[in-house]
Amino acid sequence: MHMSGAEPFTIWSGGEGCLLLHSLTSSPAEMRELGEYLANRDISVHAPLLAGHGTRPEDLIDAADWKEWLQSAMEGLDILTSRISGPIFLCGQSVGGLLSLYMAGEEEAAKDIKGVISIGSALYLRNWKISLFLPLVKHTFAGKIYRFDKPIAYDINDPEGREKIICYDRTPVKAVVSLVELKDIVRSRLSQVKVPVLAAHGGQDRTVPPGNLDVFAAELDPAEVETLLCPQSGHLVTMDYDRALLFERTYNFIKSF
User: Fold this and answer.
1) Are 220 and 197 a contacting pair, CB within 8 Å?
2) Burial of 170 (0-12, 13-18, 19+ CB in 10 A)
3) Looking at the domain assignment, is residue 1 inside a domain?
4) What CATH number has the domain bearing residue 96?
5) Domain for residue 4, yes or no?
6) Phi/psi at 202 (5° precision)
7) Residue 222: left (phi > 0), alpha (psi -120 to 50), or beta?
8) pLDDT for the residue numbered 126
């Protein structure tokens, strides 16, 4: 059974389409306000629920392989392309941004994609737990003991946003291991992304270093990448103080094609 408010949503509006992919341990609710903003401006949106999310944390242990999250995203893309004849864009937050970049680098998926909006995505991380513990979780019995860590979806400065977030109160460590694997794959093949990218990041992100914007700027074609620092926001910019700025830049990015 889904957590109340965690369900996927679709708003058919205009000839362009935008796939909205949520972050790890969270739900489409974090993309709802952005989705309504775009739909009110004639951009159709679909926000799928990634595998293992929106129910209970134990389900994300069972569906902790990033390939399962990718399958959810691809099914969401199919829903959009089945009805939208105009340009299709991918907009993902955190792991949703990594999935968007992965899809944009895949020849088969990329043929339908016009651009990517990546919000708070990790191309590198600085976290001692990840460096020391994750190899143990993956390769030893420690994974049976160290099953959950603290929640990560509350990295929001705006109290109103923290109140509205619908997410797990624990983070399955196995899922973080998979996120790191996806991060490494996306970083290694970033040059395969041939569509324009808007990379946004919260200036006060305590989960993923804001310096990731510099990696986007350095490793993508300068003519194809825009960066946006959201100075008052934490990790989940779509629910934080700079969301109006992010929404406007996302809309302008889509409408620039």
Assistant:
1) yes
2) middle
3) no
4) 3.40.50.1820
5) no
6) -75, 130
7) alpha
8) 81
**Per the structure, how many domains does the chain have?**
1
At residue 155, what are phi and psi to the nearest 5 degrees? -80, 70
Residue whose C-alpha is closest to residue 158's, from 202, 121, 207: 202
Strand partners, 116: 90, 197
What is the pLDDT at residue 9?
98
pLDDT tens-digit readout, 177-195:
899 999 999 999 999 999 9
Residue 3 lies in a domain: no
Range of the domain at 193: 9-255
pLDDT digits (tens, 9 = 90+) for 191-234: 999 999 999 999 999 999 999 999 999 999 999 999 999 999 99
Residue 194 lies in a domain: yes
pLDDT in tens, 67-101: 999 999 999 999 999 999 899 999 999 999 999 99
